[in-house]
């Protein structure tokens, strides 16, 4: 997955062009910038690649989620449905705007279970926020149907699955808004960065203003701009955008490598009867950023994961015990350990997670191992790795 593995001349050239102008800010300074607008260019390139009308670049994927929610008018006390298996940014962004994270089970897609989502809807629900974890997607068709039936927004977190598709559409473009991260370890990186994509002009205008202190961005005198509503600063710098501009041009090259390496690993494991693979919803194609597979039970998954590590097969994750990605370790959320007081709605409405039953998520995540698919491996590396993985699995089940 990490695009940094293949940094080259393109990235250097883009960054140098920004340094040559000395303008590191994405807005204003029109006279000094010698025609360089890296953030703007990257937004155009991203919108084109993702087949949408609009893209808004931000300084992180977490910012992208926050800005997407804010741009769609989500606020204090609104409920946002999110999965038990995701990165902490999901609930961070929801809490940041005073909304309430409602955790919901995942199924054998390792993403939101549409049945569980349906059961979690209340009169306060405003958004369903699936997370396309580890290179593959939620059942967007089923979730969109639920959204249309109940008048809810669909906001896709495609941070770990850029380049995957559903029904021929790029992930992130299917819902009302889609979010990407370009942090240092993602498939394409800006160092730090993120983006919101949408076909709704209103959300784009809101995102552009909200992420820059509410500036209306009318005319060419920044000091004279008015503030139609309250905003914040989630801006990306031109230096970060420059790196991303080089990287997005290489996205398809990266995806081809991911797919090739993934296929070699998968084929090596496919003949082991105890191994099965994560379900990809009908109509979907993965980004191949990870190979995700199930072992028969929790005990064998733990054992195999340990053995893979011992044999030097790096970058394989057992999320069930992971500090970041699974609800079992989110005590700071479930106990609301914040520095200062949070909005009252959050105290009043946050479910008592100690009483909720996520055994359906445990059933799947407890037996899952996910292995990162790297870009920098040589063909020999991948074949050796595939061989080693198959041997370790067979010896430990
Ligand atoms: C990386 C990631 C984010 C957050 O991105 P940052 O740019 O690191 O803030 C959000 N969601 C998922 C699923 C991610 O993997």
Word description of this protein:
This protein has 397 residues and is of the alpha/beta class. The protein folds into 2 domains: 3-250, Aspartate Aminotransferase, domain 2, CATH 3.40.640; 252-395, Aspartate Aminotransferase, domain 1, CATH 3.90.1150. It has helices at 9-21, 38-49, 61-71, 89-96, 114-120, 140-150, 201-210, 238-248, 251-270, 298-310, 331-334, 344-349, 359-365, 379-395; strands at residues 54-58, 79-83, 100-104, 125-128, 153-157, 165-166, 169-170, 177-181, 194-198, 276-277, 284-285, 290-294, 316-317, 368-372. Helix 6 (140-150) links the parallel strand 4 and strand 5 (153-157). Helix 2 packs parallel to helix 8 (238-248). The longest helix has 20 residues, at 251-270. The two termini are 28 Å apart. The model has no long low-confidence stretch (mean pLDDT 97). Bound molecules: pyridoxal-5'-phosphate.
Spell out the blueprint of helices and strands:
Elements: H1 9-21, H2 38-49, E1 54-58, H3 61-71, E2 79-83, H4 89-96, E3 100-104, H5 114-120, E4 125-128, H6 140-150, E5 153-157, E6 165-166, E7 169-170, E8 177-181, E9 194-198, H7 201-210, H8 238-248, H9 251-270, E10 276-277, E11 284-285, E12 290-294, H10 298-310, E13 316-317, H11 331-334, H12 344-349, H13 359-365, E14 368-372, H14 379-395
Parallel strand pairs: 2-3, 2-4, 4-5, 5-8
Antiparallel strand pairs: 1-9, 6-7, 6-11, 8-9, 10-12, 12-14, 13-14
The structure holds pyridoxal-5'-phosphate.
Residues 60-62, 86-87, 89, 131, 157, 159-160, 181, 183, 194 line the site of pyridoxal-5'-phosphate.
């Amino acid at each position: 997955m990490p695009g940094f593995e293949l940094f080259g001349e393109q990235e250097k050239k883009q960054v140098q062009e920004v340094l040559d102008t000395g303008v590191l800010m994405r807005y204003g300074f029109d006279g000094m910038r010698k025609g360089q607008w890296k953030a703007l260019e990257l937004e155009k390139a991203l919108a084109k690649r993702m087949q949408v009308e609009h893209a808004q670049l931000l300084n992180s994927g977490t910012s992208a989620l926050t800005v997407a929610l804010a741009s769609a008018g989500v606020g204090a006390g609104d409920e946002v449905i999110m999965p038990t298996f995701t990165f902490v940014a999901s609930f961070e962004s929801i809490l940041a705007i005073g909304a309430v994270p409602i955790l919901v089970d995942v199924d054998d897609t390792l993403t939101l279970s549409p049945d569980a989502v349906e059961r979690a809807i209340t009169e306060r629900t405003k958004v369903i926020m699936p997370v396309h974890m580890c290179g593959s997607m939620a059942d967007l068709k089923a979730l969109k149907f639920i959204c249309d039936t109940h008048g809810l927004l669909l906001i896709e977190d495609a941070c770990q699955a850029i380049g995957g598709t559903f029904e021929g559409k790029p992930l992130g473009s299917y819902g009302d808004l889609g979010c990407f991260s370009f942090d240092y370890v993602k498939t394409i990186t800006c160092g730090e960065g993120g983006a919101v994509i949408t076909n709704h002009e209103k959300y784009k205008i809101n995102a552009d203003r909200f992420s820059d202190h509410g500036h209306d961005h009318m005319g060419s005198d920044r000091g004279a701009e008015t503030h139609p509503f309250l905003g914040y600063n989630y801006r990306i710098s031109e230096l970060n955008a420059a790196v991303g501009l080089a990287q997005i041009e290489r996205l398809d090259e990266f995806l081809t490598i991911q797919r090739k390496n993934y296929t070699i690993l998968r084929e090596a494991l496919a003949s082991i009867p105890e191994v099965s693979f994560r379900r990809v919803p009908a109509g979907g194609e993965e980004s191949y950023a990870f190979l995700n597979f199930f072992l028969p039970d929790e005990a064998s998954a733990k054992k195999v994961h340990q053995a893979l590590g011992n044999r030097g097969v790096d970058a394989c994750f057992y999320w069930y015990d992971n500090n970041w990605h699974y609800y079992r370790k989110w005590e700071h959320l479930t106990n609301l350990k914040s520095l200062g007081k949070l909005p009252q709605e959050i105290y009043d409405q946050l479910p008592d997670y100690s009483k909720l039953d996520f055994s359906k998520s445990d059933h799947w995540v407890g037996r899952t191992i996910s292995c990162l698919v790297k870009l920098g491996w040589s063909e020999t590396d991948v074949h050796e790795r595939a061989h080693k993985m198959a041997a370790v699995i067979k010896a430990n089940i």
